[in-house]
Amino acid sequence: MTGGHYALGNPLVGPRPQARTRSFTRRGGRMPRTHQRAWDRHADDVLLEVPRVHGDTSTVVDTAYRLDVGAVFGRRAPLVVEVGSGSGDALVAGAAARPDWDFLAFEVWRPGIGHALAKLSQAGDGQLPANVRVVEADASLALRTMLPPGSVHEVWTFFPDPWPKTRHHKRRIVTAGFADTVLRLLAPDGVWRLATDAEDYALAMRGLIDPHPGLRLASTDRAPLRPVTRFERRGVEAGRAIHDLAYVRA
């Protein structure tokens, strides 16, 4: 198999994903000691091993792979998928507030995963909640094939990278194609929740999703489980408004 996504040969991947997915390679870096300890202790328990198209360093999940959510969590419960969990603030808050729900987080920033594991461990007095799993992969591609249709109770896309430069807008995760992916995943009563403090990105989200024939804007209120993070506080202090959007099936 030759390199590059053209080699995947699967129409679900599409003919030209390179422009976006180059920015979602597995991102490493040195972790603070506490985060590394959390990774060493907990990664084997919550980080899911998935088959990858281009080897262990790739963030592209094999399109033939299907995740058995019931087997992974050991039960059937409402599933929340977080796209870009960052350092884990929403993941920690959600898992603690809703132990009756399961949370599947996608993140490509390894130090962020380590930070999230440290926060989860601290919140659980050294133990991680049983309702959290993490996939180190590009969600925009993996979610096209990895989960069955209608299987997700909520999809969270909180403060995705706004890629503020116009020439980088093509790298933004919220696209019409990603809206199609989310619609496929949502259960009949499912909700797609988004948040951003970038005014132009909020307008772009509305411009892309509001006309979607399968989705309807249900609320612009703050997501019930979304915590106030230090980054959000900084944004508010800098005068930026926080935009929350919630979409349901039309």
From TrEMBL:
Q: Which InterPro entries match?
A: SAM-dependent_MTases_sf (IPR029063), tRNA_(Gua-N-7)_MeTrfase_Trmb (IPR003358), tRNA_methyltr_TrmB_bact (IPR055361)
Listed pathway(s): tRNA modification; N(7)-methylguanine-tRNA biosynthesis
Q: Output the Gene Ontology terms for molecular function.
A: tRNA (guanine(46)-N7)-methyltransferase activity
The annotated regions of Basic residues compositional bias extend over: 23-35
User: Per the record, which residues fall in region Disordered?
Assistant: 1-35
Instruction: List keywords of the entry alphabetically.
Output: Methyltransferase, S-adenosyl-L-methionine, Transferase, tRNA processing
Cellular component, GO, one term: tRNA methyltransferase complex
Q: Which family does it belong to?
A: Belongs to the class I-like SAM-binding methyltransferase superfamily. TrmB family.
What function does the entry list? Answer: Catalyzes the formation of N(7)-methylguanine at position 46 (m7G46) in tRNA.
Q: Name the chain's protein.
A: tRNA (guanine-N(7)-)-methyltransferase
This chain's source organism reads Ornithinimicrobium cerasi
